[in-house]
C-alpha cells in the first residue's frame, strides 16, 4: 500500500489536546481512553491517526514542500464493543501532506479505491460523506462502505484537511468485509 510513501511508526500514547483540537472538539473525549500521566498532563491512547499528521506536519515534511506517508497503528476507542466496532483496532492509513488539499484528496481517493479494488472487494463510494471528525475541509470526506457489514459498513474513511488529505482503513473491519464477500487472501 505504500505507493512510494514513507512509513511512519506512531506512538500509542499521546496528548489529549491534539485530538480535542484536531479531531472533533470535546465530543471526542467521550471516545478516548483518557487519563492524566504522573505529572498530571492530559494523555490518551490514540483514537485515530490523522490528527497526529495535522499537528506535526512540519516535522513530517522536514523542509519538503509535500510528501506521502503510510502507517499501521493500534488505535483505541472508549465505546461499547459491537460487531465490527472494537475498543482496540488496527488502522492502516495514508496521508498526503502538502499545500494542495484538492490534489491530495484526489490522490488519496484513488489510492483507497485502488487498494480495495486490488483485493477484489465490492464497495459503495460516498464521495461527499458528512463525518464526525471536524478537521475535514467543509466537514466532508469520503467513505467506502461494504453493505454486507450492516450498521458498521464503513471500511475506509478519508478526506482533505488544511495540511493535505488522507484515509484510514480499519483492518479488522476490512477482514470482516472480505469474509462477508467470500474473498480469501
From TrEMBL:
It holds the Pfam family tRNA-synt_His. One of its GO terms (biological process) is histidyl-tRNA aminoacylation. This is Class II Histidinyl-tRNA synthetase (HisRS)-like catalytic core domain-containing protein. One of its GO terms (molecular function) is histidine-tRNA ligase activity. The lineage of its organism: Bacteria, Pseudomonadati, Pseudomonadota, Betaproteobacteria, Neisseriales. Residues 4-120 form the Class II Histidinyl-tRNA synthetase (HisRS)-like catalytic core domain. One of its GO terms (cellular component) is cytoplasm. Gene3D superfamilies: Bira Bifunctional Protein, Domain 2. It comes from Chromobacterium paludis.
Amino acid at each position: 500500500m505504500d505507493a512510494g510513501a514513507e512509513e511512519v511508526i506512531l506512538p500509542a500514547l499521546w496528548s489529549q489536546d491534539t485530538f480535542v483540537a484536531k479531531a472533533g472538539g470535546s465530543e471526542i473525549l467521550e471516545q478516548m481512553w483518557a487519563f492524566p500521566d504522573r505529572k498530571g498532563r492530559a494523555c490518551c491512547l490514540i483514537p485515530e491517526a490523522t490528527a497526529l499528521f495535522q499537528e506535526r506536519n512540519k516535522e513530517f515534511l522536514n523542509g519538503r514542500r509535500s510528501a506521502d506517508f503510510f502507517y499501521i497503528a493500534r488505535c483505541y476507542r472508549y465505546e461499547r464493543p459491537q460487531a465490527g466496532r472494537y475498543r482496540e483496532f488496527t488502522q492502516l492509513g495514508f496521508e498526503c501532506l502538502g499545500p494542495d488539499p484538492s490534489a491530495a484528496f484526489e490522490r488519496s481517493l484513488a489510492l483507497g479505491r485502488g487498494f480495495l479494488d486490488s483485493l477484489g472487494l465490492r464497495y459503495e463510494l460516498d464521495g461527499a460523506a458528512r463525518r464526525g471528525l471536524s478537521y475535514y475541509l467543509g466537514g466532508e470526506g469520503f467513505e467506502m462502505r461494504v453493505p454486507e457489514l450492516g450498521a458498521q459498513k464503513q471500511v475506509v474513511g478519508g478526506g482533505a484537511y488544511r495540511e493535505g488529505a488522507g484515509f484510514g482503513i480499519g483492518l479488522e473491519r476490512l477482514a470482516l468485509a472480505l469474509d462477508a464477500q467470500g474473498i480469501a487472501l
